[in-house]
Structure formats: structure tokens, C-alpha cells
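Retro notes, structure queue

What went well: the backlog is down to a handful. What didn't: a couple of records were mislabeled last round, so from now on we paste the full input next to the output in the thread. Example, using Glycosyl transferase family 1 domain-containing protein from Chryseobacterium pennipullorum:
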Amino acid sequence: MDIKMSKKVLILSTGDVNGAYEAMYKVAHIMKNMGHEVAMCVKHKTKNEEFIKAYSHPSPVAIQPGLLAKVVNKAKTKLSLTKPQEVKKTLSTDKKYSFFSKDELSENIHVESLLKAVGFIPDFIFVGMTIDFLNTTDLLNIYNATKAKIYNITVDMNHFTGGCHFSWGCEGYIRGCDETCPAIIKEDEKIIAKINFDRKYSNAQKANFQIIAGSGLTLEQAQKSKIYREQETIYNINSLIDTQLLNDRNKSIAKRIFSLSDDRFYILTGAQNMEDPRKGFVYLMEALEILDRELPQELKNKIVLLVVSNSVNEEFDRVTFTKQKIDYIKDYRLLALLYQAADLFVNSSIEDSGPMMVSEALACGTPVVGFDTGVLINMVIDDYNGYKAPLKDSKKLAEGIKKIFELNKDAYQTFSKNAVQQVEEFSSYEYAEEIFANILK
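Corresponding output:
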């Protein structure tokens, strides 16, 4: 890239490892590879790369009313609306909604200190998950100080809700969250969802926040959301897969690396927490029980369930197929080999913006079967690289598993190649670079 075209890019995220935070780390690397000047500012720094900057909140004494601070204070005066009801720091919430972003009114960072840590005034800002770090009021303050173009990236729904990260069918994000919020249990606290949503909407309008989807599901949700439905083009970056690391190049030998048998059919599934109702493992159990009834014993003997998790749900004890637990893998090189060793990846999530494992499995040439949500919506195509089942339809999930199990060798190879191609075309770093090139003009 011509150095004259280089932009100053700031990535904001609470952390730099695992899940949503790892996704923003990938965004930073893609931007750096494109030739831009990049800083990733986080509350919790784990990785040792120099471009990752840890934000440290200054003591009140250390804050001097410099020029930038005056600009920010002036902007805050303009920002002030009718004095809102105080937002409580603790809320009684239904855990399944992940109502973590509880306060859009407070100011959590000192803008001048953040920009000092970053080392430049950004042209563009990309925001991932910032729980316990900063909110949209902080983003508006940063915008007023920098006039940078701000893009929120959907690792879940939080960028366009009143606080929840998963809606479970609630359409508050479409009409505007209000006092009927199902995520908040106590009636006198439900108003907080409305307060947060109204402030989030106002901040987005004032700073012209834009949204980038991270999956087919969050693309559809963002297009319907009150905050972003007027946005002309919403790009979808689909999980961001490093195909240099996750690919099918060792698929022919991967089983041997894990001492797996060539004459067995290995079904891989898993999550960090299998007790999470969002992951829908009860429906996978039902699907496996259906297969248990339908398949003759000699075919059942060929199936082995590989379960990757920090803790395995006790429900798995009733599964009659051979099972093998694998501790949660953090090394991507080893994880890539495991995906390649598996014959099928099953994702039973019923409320999920991803998960990343779907695109990772596809990248490694492993067909995917799962419910029609999250990244499966546009990354898994029936009779091409896997099968999708309607939400919570265990019978259809079982049918999809059975179809992959019954593929002959040539047909399976076609599915495997199609899986890789889908990721290369719609989820690779190269694909994301094309999108970011359009944005960073």
C-alpha cells in the first residue's frame, strides 16, 4: 500500500484474547498488514505486542485541563440532555440475556489519557466488546475530541440493544427498548433498558456510528435495528479466519496425530461452557438419541463423539455412542489439526452470534451441521458444505448428521472442498481486507 494512503486506526476492546476480544485482535492484524498505523487499546493487556496499548485511568490529581480536555468538556456540555434517572450499577437480570452493559450514561475513561496511550489521533476507530471498559457516551467523547469515523463490530447484539447481548426473540432492539424488557427481572428496574437504549441511540446519531456485522445473523439483526437500519451498506466480515493457520492441508494425516482410527466417523462438538442454555446441547442429546434408535448397531459402532469443553454436561452420560472428552484447546495449530481429524462438526447453538468454531471447522475442510442461526445462516449451505436445521428441531439436526455420515468418499471430499472454499470467499483475512479497503478510503 502507498504510504500516503495509510490511515491511523484505533481498535477498542476490553481485552486481547479469547472469543470476542480475539476477533478485534484479528482486525488489528488485518489493518496492520494493509499498511495502516494501528493501535489496539484495551483495559486488560495479555499479549506482548507493542501495538497493543493498556489504558490506565489517571488519578484526579493527574488530570490537567489541557486543550484537548477543554474540547471534550465543551462537547460534554452540548451532550447533556434532560437529567436522566440514575442507572443502578447492580441489576436483577435473567442470565440468559447476558445483560452486561448496564450503564450508557456514565463516563468511564479520560479521553486525553487514552489518546496519549495510543500515541496518535485516529482517523478511524473500530469497536468490539468493551464490557467494563467504556460505553457509547465514552465513544461520543472520543469522537468529539478526534472526529474519527467510528465503526462498531457486532460480536453479538449489544451495539444495538439497551444492554443485553442476546435477545432470545425480544424485538426491543427493533422498536426501541422500553419498560417491558424481559432481561431485567424487577419491574422498577426495567426502565433502565429504555434509558440505556435512548442514550445509545442519541450517541449513535450525534457521532454517526456505523455498524459492521460479524455473522449472517447479526447482519440481519443490524439491518432491522432502530439504531442502524438507516445505514446504507452494512458489511459482514463473517468470523475472520486466518486460512494460513486454519486450513485442510493436513487432513489426510490428522487422524493419526490424534491416534484416531480411519474406519471411524468422528463427530466434533463443544463450547467453553456446555451448561450455557444458548449452546443448545439438550437438542444435540435428543438428535443423538434419534440416531441411536434409527441406526443399526454395526453403524452405531463406527460413530465416535469428540467433545471439546472445559466441563462436559452430565447429560452426555446417557449418550450411547462412544465418547471422548478433549480439554478445551487454546493452541490454534493443535485446534486446526483436531478440526481436520474430525469428519463432522455439529453446532447446536440456539442463540448465538457465531460461534467462531463453525467457520474454523469449515476452513479445515470439515462439513458442519447445526441450527439455522449465527454464522451458519450464510456460511453453511445445504447439500454443499453441510446442513442447517430449524431452531430446536432435533429431528432435522439428526437428519443432517445422518446425511453427512452416509456420504460416500467422493461426495464427502466435495463437501470438504466446498467448506474450505466458502471460508476463503466469505470469511478469510483476504475477504476482510477487501471490506476494510472500501471503508478506509
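Agreed that this is the format going forward. Reviewer comment attached to the example: The radius of gyration is 23 Å.
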